[in-house]
């Protein structure tokens, strides 16, 4: 249809700069008109590439838009590239390493993205040892550097605790993530440092964590509010836990914004429509997704330096 050689067409479809723009435009126009798509199996055989990026998500990570916003950001990063995104579900009864092994061993993607990085995450260890491109949402403590995107949770917990001290709180508490997750230690360090500087007390919720059912978190906070020396301020690491904490404080007879205070991370504007008396700090998961996608593309292309990004919290208190 074009009268051009196959190699020329291939270069034109890949926007090779050495070809004249007129040639590239003509080839791409005809390809669009006839609905041409490259055969993915043939592409993989010829280049070793799949043009697939795999994102691992747990089904419950869709709550409050975490998964949706992450996908939005990654998709934006992949726009105008040859890559497309495939979501691989990670179910609770499946070890997190299993889908990673399956993808790598069968070369089902050119790179992977996953969240909830642990301090000594076996997924990160496996991918480093396999020399397979990846970016984690969260950091690890392996001695080798690895690509990651993270939120500065230590700075968040520090700023949130100082804010609660400013509001007159005598003791702050937090329902922490699972102890294996790296950002759990970041949250603990931020709270401890701010409490030491402001002279207030702090404690970490016992018997529950962010993975606990909301009813369990709510019951814990109610019981703790009725025992001696209860916390009057809570730093929350997620909107879901914040809703459970606020409901419990209300059930215990406390008034949010008066004799009890909450600071929470939020990823959407929805939370403040229902709980205006809590204070919030934005964590932008769509922006995190954009960085995850861009860093992974850079790694796939062969880059090895500067493949990390840490988002800093922005504190914008009302008064």
**Shape label:** elongated
The CATH H-level homologous superfamily of the largest domain: Response regulator
Mean pLDDT: 91
Which ranges are low-confidence, i.e. pLDDT below 50, for 5 or more consecutive residues?
A: none
* SS content category: alpha/beta
CATH architecture of the largest domain: 3-Layer(aba) Sandwich
Number of strands: 11
Task: Provide the spatial order of strands within the biggest beta sheet.
Answer: 2-1-3-4-5-11
* Whole-angstrom Rg: 24 Å
Helix content: 40-55%
Looking at the chains present, what oligomeric state does this protein adopt?
A: single chain
Strand content: 15-25%
The first-level CATH class name of the largest domain: Alpha Beta
Protein name: LacI family transcriptional regulator
Organism: Devosia elaeis
InterPro entries: HTH_LacI (IPR000843), LacI/GalR-like_sensor (IPR046335), Lambda_DNA-bd_dom_sf (IPR010982), Peripla_BP_I (IPR028082)
Pfam families: LacI, Peripla_BP_3
Report on this structure:
InterPro entries: HTH_LacI, LacI/GalR-like_sensor, Lambda_DNA-bd_dom_sf, Peripla_BP_I. Keywords: DNA-binding, Transcription, Transcription regulation. This is LacI family transcriptional regulator. Residues 1-47 form the HTH lacI-type domain. The protein is α/β, with parallel strands linked by helices and 319 residues long. It has helices at 6-13, 21-34, 40-47, 66-78, 97-105, 122-130, 153-166, 182-198, 214-226, 239-251, 270-274, 285-300; strands at residues 52-57, 84-89, 111-115, 134-137, 148-151, 171-174, 201-204, 233-236, 261-266, 279-282, 308-311. A six-stranded parallel β-sheet has the order 2-1-3-4-5-11, with helices on both faces. It has a five-stranded parallel β-sheet with strand order 7-6-8-9-10, sandwiched between helices. Helix 10 links the parallel strand 8 (233-236) and strand 9. Helix 1 (6-13) packs across helix 2 (21-34), helix 5 (97-105) runs parallel beside helix 6 (122-130) and helix 7 packs parallel to helix 8.
């Amino acid at each position: 249809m074009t009268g051009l050689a196959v190699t020329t067409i291939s270069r034109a479809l890949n926007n090779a700069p050495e070809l004249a723009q007129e040639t590239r435009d003509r080839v791409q126009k005809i390809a669009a008109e006839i609905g041409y798509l490259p055969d993915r199996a043939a592409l993989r055989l010829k280049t070793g590439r799949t043009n697939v990026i795999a994102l691992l998500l747990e089904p419950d990570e869709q709550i409050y838009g975490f998964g949706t916003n992450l996908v939005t950001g990654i998709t934006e990063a992949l726009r105008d590239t040859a890559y497309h995104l495939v979501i691989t579900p990670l179910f609770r009864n499946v070890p997190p390493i299993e889908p990673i092994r399956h993808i790598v061993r069968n070369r089902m993607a050119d790179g992977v993205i996953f969240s909830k990085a642990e301090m000594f995450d076996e997924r990160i260890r496996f991918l480093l040892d396999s020399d397979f491109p990846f970016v984690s949402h969260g950091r690890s403590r392996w001695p080798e550097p690895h690509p990651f995107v993270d939120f500065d949770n230590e700075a968040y917990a520090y700023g949130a605790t100082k804010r609660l001290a400013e509001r007159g709180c005598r003791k702050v508490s937090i329902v922490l993530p699972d102890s294996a997750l790296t950002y759990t230690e970041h949250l603990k360090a931020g709270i401890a440092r701010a409490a030491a500087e402001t002279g207030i007390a702090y404690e970490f919720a016992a018997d529950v964590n962010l993975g606990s059912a909301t009813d369990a978190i709510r019951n814990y906070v109610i019981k703790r509010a009725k025992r001696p020396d209860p916390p009057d301020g809570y730093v929350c690491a997620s909107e879901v836990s914040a809703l459970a904490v606020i409901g419990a404080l209300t059930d215990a007879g406390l008034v949010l914004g008066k004799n009890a205070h909450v600071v929470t991370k939020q990823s959407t504007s929805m939370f403040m429509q229902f709980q205006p008396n809590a204070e919030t700090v934005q964590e932008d998961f769509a922006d995190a997704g954009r960085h995850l996608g861009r860093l992974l593309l850079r790694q796939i292309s062969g880059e090895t330096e500067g493949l990390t990004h840490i988002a800093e919290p922005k504190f914008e208190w009302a008064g």
